[in-house]
Design a protein that fits this description.
The structure holds two protein chains of two kinds. Chain A is α+β, with helices and mostly antiparallel strands. Chain A contains eleven helices and 14 strands. By secondary structure, chain B is of the alpha+beta class. Classes of the chains: A alpha+beta, B alpha+beta.
């Protein structure tokens, strides 16, 4: 014989203030827990979206970021002759040789300094990054001191407007367009002409990376073998673009997750104790009721279940409230320096099904742990003394 | 006196509930203390910076190097005591395991230690470092972490400076006090520069940034302007700022993370408030009749409210103290888990004051509602109450 659920529900409803405080406490913990998961998910999303699965990137061995990589023009020319290269209709290969450097811009509002990647490319029209589109103005013209800025740079940094100029070293670049790169890493970059950067920074023929489109996925190993067997390409390595960008954010994601989880775990104990206090109070206030229920023939186990259910309901309401609060974070953009590459990286909070499930389980455990001891106490009450209790 | 006795007795009436409340508070205060410590550790470079040191870097971004010949020109400027410089070496140690990251700088061995006089290195070790081109000096903390001893060879894979590098440990420095970063590795710039002659001649003769020691802190602005003015028409313009401002720039790169930590620490305060408030509301609710009896005996409403406030503040204070005591071991453990991210991880006095201060404040705030409510309850209503 089970105690009806409506009994628990009406009990929670009877002490609105206490129930409300407990639920709020749990929902705050759930909110932080979900926010941490959403943030690491957001970093992952950005990095996965930055690389395309059909693209391969060639960098210098051991480079942890584009900044440290050097690929020479003659090496690029050599790789370009590989028969595995995909070609456009006009016979040119689907590839881009980029030279990457960094400039400092100030954030809007706070004026904090951010490190922005400045990416020079030979031919912007030869775009092998379909996730990047021009939304305002036009592309820069080769050989001109012009640039296009990513959407996050435009949103978050000063002076990244069409018609304004951005200073790089001894020259100024005129901003002529704005890119929509969605939530990819390219959204935090400025793109301009490759030769301009090579000259400005005396890099001669030293590009940073070479990215190309692969028609047949099985050719990845072939390219690898070609690099290791050709003497002039010994110092290079090839990676899938997606893996490359994921590796760059590994450290950041790990750090945020570790810090967030340490904190969340610590104060989930606080929330459990909050639930425990509430449930113990409920038991002591309702001693007579429990005695009556037992006298009516409800089993100890039913009483235990009833009180556990009450604690779990508290936790789940808190979970729902916390998740609703956390889902509001999806509108927030989080922009910080990626320790891995030292460049500015803007990402969002992503709510995924797995985050919702993890949060739900987390809240459930909080409710069960917080409610278990009080429920045991309720179940073990002696009928006679419970009926005799005051209040 | 009698009131104090009353309050203490009330606190211990519900032993389990009080114990749980204090435990809950203590855990939350501990989390708060840990977070604040992370924030202060992040800012340690700003607090530990010297007011008589300026940093001169490339105006566009500090990843761009500056010509070595700027050194003598800066040294000529009035008010400059000594000029040293450093270059970021980077490199990969132990396959880039997260705990194998520590800062590695290439410096000028003669001027580095005089300029950074908070780095203590025995004289004989300094001499050995100067005389050995591929020598290196490591901080005490990383020496302990990796078991480096004098004479050991540290092998690194270069990234900014390509190739495999073997550095011989010629010295181990320690900090003058607790605020000094003991996780750095220092090597000779001349040794790196030499190697570039082979691999990339165009990069020879450049340094990362200059460290300028000045005579008086109040000349910082003037000297900075003179330095930047000197190179305003050259291809590599400079930006000179105090070491504090330079470090602040680094910290502000992670401002978003710091802001989130701040927000979370306030959420924690909110949770403390809810837990304690809940307990106080329950206690007050159970004692409505007693309060009515006290009033019927002629005690004032203010005294009844005072009883509740006193009890709440006492519990808050106890939780705060225990939480603070717990902060130290957990901060120690956390600092040891990430030795290289946080070179200095100490619970600061300001964190201690905040932890206990907030607990007391929360104690006051949590009792506000029940104290107000029981102060207002009339004697008749109170005696009629069945709970």
């Amino acid at each position: 014989m089970k105690v009806p659920f409506s009994y628990n529900w009406r009990n929670l409803w009877a002490r609105k203030l206490t129930t409300g405080l407990t639920v709020t406490g749990i929902s705050l913990v759930v909110f932080v827990f979900a926010a941490v998961l959403m943030l690491s998910e957001g970093i992952r999303d950005t990095m996965v979206a930055t690389g395309s699965k059909d693209n391969l990137i060639i960098i210098r061995k051991g480079s942890t970021s584009d900044l440290l990589s050097v690929v020479m023009r003659e090496q690029i020319d050599l790789v370009s002759t590989f028969p595995e290269m995909q070609k456009h209709a006009d016979g040119s290969i689907m590839a881009t040789a980029d030279v990457v450097t960094m400039i400092n811009l100030d954030k809007k509002g706070s004026g904090d300094m951010g490190n922005i990647y400045l990416r020079g490319m030979a031919n912007p029209a030869n775009n092998i990054r379909p996730q990047v589109k021009l939304v305002e103005g036009r592309w820069f013209r080769p050989g001109q001191a012009e640039a296009v800025v990513g959407n996050k740079v435009h949103d978050l940094f000063q002076g990244a407007e069409v018609g304004r100029e951005i200073e790089i070293g001894s020259r100024k670049l005129l901003v002529v367009g704005i890119l929509d790169a969605g939530k990819t890493g390219f959204a935090s970059e400025i793109w301009t002409d490759a030769d301009l950067i090579l000259n400005e920074y005396n890099r001669a023929n030293a590009f940073s990376t070479f990215t190309f489109h692969l028609g047949n996925q099985d050719d990845f190993e072939v390219i690898k073998t070609r690099l290791s067997s050709e003497k002039r390409l010994q110092d290079l390595e090839v990676k899938r673009e997606q893996d490359y960008y994921l590796e760059q954010s590994q450290f950041m994601a790990t750090f945020i997750t570790a810090l967030g989880l340490v904190v969340t775990i610590i104060f989930s104990f606080g929330a459990m104790i909050g639930a425990m206090i509430t449930m113990y109070a409920a038991v002591s206030n309702r001693t007579t009721e429990i005695g009556t229920l037992r006298a009516l023939g409800f089993k100890r186990r039913s009483i235990l279940t009833a009180f556990l259910v009450e604690a779990v309901v508290l936790a789940l309401i808190g979970c729902a409230v916390g998740l609703v609060l956390a889902s509001g974070l999806q509108a927030v953009t989080f922009s910080t320096t990626n320790f891995g590459t030292f460049s500015e990286l803007a990402f969002g909070f992503s709510m995924s099904t797995s985050t919702i499930i993890s949060t739900f389980i987390f809240a459930l455990v909080m409710g069960l742990v917080g409610g278990f001891l009080p429920a045991v106490r309720a179940a073990r009450l002696n009928i006679v003394s419970a009926l005799r209790a005051e209040g | 006196m009698i009131i104090t006795k009353f309050i203490v007795k009330n606190v211990f009436r519900h032993k389990l509930r009080t114990a749980l409340t204090i435990l809950g508070l203590a855990i939350a205060v501990m989390a708060f203390g840990l977070l604040r410590t992370v924030v202060t550790a992040w800012n340690y470079g700003v607090d530990a910076s010297s007011s008589t040191r300026l940093i001169t870097r490339h105006a566009v971004s500090f990843i761009f190097p500056l010509p070595y010949n700027y050194r003598d020109q800066i040294a000529q400027i009035p008010g400059v005591k000594q000029v040293s410089f450093a270059t970021w070496f980077g490199g990969v140690y132990k396959d880039n395991a997260p705990d194998a990251f520590f800062p590695r700088f290439a410096v000028d061995p003669e001027s580095f230690f005089p300029v950074y006089n908070e780095f203590i290195l025995p004289d004989d070790q300094l001499k050995a470092f100067i005389s050995q081109r591929n020598g290196c000096v490591v901080g005490k903390k990383i020496a302990d972490q990796f078991g480096f001893k004098i004479g050991d060879i540290i092998t690194m894979q270069g990234d900014i400076f390509p190739g495999m590098w073997d550095f011989v440990v010629t010295g181990i420095y320690s900090g003058r006090d607790k605020t000094v970063d003991e996780t750095q590795m220092i090597i000779q710039w001349a040794y790196l520069d030499e190697s570039l002659k082979e691999t990339s001649p165009s990069r020879v003769g450049y340094v990362g940034w200059y460290i300028v020691a000045i005579d008086k802190a109040n000349q910082a602005g003037m000297v900075s302007e003179s330095i930047d003015g000197l190179f305003s028409n050259s291809s590599a313009k400079t930006k000179t700022e105090t070491e504090k401002a330079f470090q602040q720039g680094f910290v502000s790169m992670s401002s978003a993370i710091l802001a989130s930590l701040e927000i979370i620490s306030f959420v924690i305060i909110g949770i403390i408030l809810l837990v304690l408030g809940n307990t106080m509301i329950m206690s007050a609710r159970e004692r409505i009749r007693e309060y009515a009896v006290l009033k019927a005996l002629g005690f004032s409403s203010a005294l009844v409210s005072g009883l509740i406030i006193g009890e709440s503040v006492l519990i808050g204070f106890a939780g705060g103290l225990i939480g603070l005591a717990l902060t130290f071991p957990i901060a120690n453990a956390f600092g040891q888990a990430f030795p290289t991210i946080f070179p200095v991880f100490e619970v600061m006095p300001v964190t201690m004051i905040l932890s206990v201060g907030f607990s007391l404040g929360v104690g006051l705030l949590a009792s506000a509602f029940p104290a107000w409510k029981s102060g207002r309850t009339t004697i008749v209503d109170g005696l009629r109450q069945i709970e």
